[in-house]
Structures are given as C-alpha cells and as structure tokens.
Amino acid sequence: MKITYYGHSCTLVEHEAKRVIIDPFLSGNPPSGVSPENIEVDAVILTHGHDDHFGDCIDLARRNNCPIIAVYELAVFCSKKGVQADGLNIGGARKYDGFEVKLTSALHSSSVSDGDTWVYAGQPAGVLLTMGGHTFYHAGDTALFSDLRMIGEMNSIACAALPIGDALTMGPQDALLAAQWLRTPRVIPVHYNTFPGIEQDGQDFCNRLKQSGIEGYPLTSGQSLEI
Fold it and tell me: Which UniProt keywords apply (predicted)?
C-alpha cells in the first residue's frame, strides 16, 4: 500500500493497479501541488460534504468514469450532478474490485454548497480502506470520541490519517490519545496549516507520537508513505 498526501486532508491510496483518492481538495488548494487533471483513480471517497473535502470530486468522477463513495445523502447529491455515486452508511462496508470500504462514525458536521444554498449531506464519516491486505484509516474531520478505541480494537490499522488543526477538529493533544486508542503503528497528521486558525507544528506532533511508540509522518504535499 502506498499513501500519497496532497495537502489538507487529501490522500491518494494505491496498491498495484488500483488507486483511490479521499477528500480531493486540489484545485481550490494551491499547496496541494497537483491539478485534478493529472489524477487518475478508480474511485473517489468523501468523508463529508464541506468544500475543503468535497473539492474536485465531481470533476474527478466524471473524467475517470469512476464512482464517488460517500454516506448515502451525499452520494445522492453527487448523483444529481450526473456522476456515478455509491451510498453507504455509518458502519456499512462494501467490497469493490481490488479494495474494500467501510464507513465509521465521526464527530463533526456535514453540508455541501449548491449555489447560494447549503444542502444537508448526511452524517460525517471516517473511512476504513483496505487494499493489498493493509487497512488505512482516514478519520475525516472529527473530534475525539470514545468509539475510536472500539475502531482500534476491531481493526488492524496499518496507518491512520488524523486531523490535528484544532478549532474545527480535534487538536494535537486529542489526536495523540486517538492514535493510542486506534492501536496503529503509523500516523499521518492532516487538516492543519491550510488556512488561518488551524496552524500547528506537524513535526512536534510526530515527535510526541514517538514517545508513545507510534511513528508519525508529517508529509508535505506530494510525499508518500509505503507500507
């Protein structure tokens, strides 16, 4: 499994010929360093509907002729934009060609902008993505909540992407505890330093993780981690 970070909360996960992108906030996020026109994927996964996660999902799904996988209400919204969409719900899993997706709870909010209005986009979610025998957990935007311990107990998580920005998600201190509860050996900090109000020191967070026996990877856009 290879995980490439494209800024904010966007990760591209691949194994052999399969490629899946999560929360593709690219063209509206200059630090991503990549144009959606250069992304080839087999599926797009959304954790929730906010613009900094919804991003370029419609364009990517249309150009790659691939599905958007999201919680049911958000998938319906995407299908009305003329693209393939597959709706799951919290706790539900589905196997695809070469990978499996399961949605978990996340403690946040979710809506999607549609012109001048905001549309309810169902519950926010975390994602358990399994490819090539490894499971990657993308927590989405979330606060710390006790069921993270259960997620760690029920799954062998090779790597987790955890938000550390604070203000809109959990901050570094809560993310340290989340990493321990998840029982994961590797963590990629996400959702920080993209815009004012969520500035954090990713390297310091990873140094603190190491004190708990967890390897942290403060990736910059375009950098990858191979498992």
Answer: Hydrolase
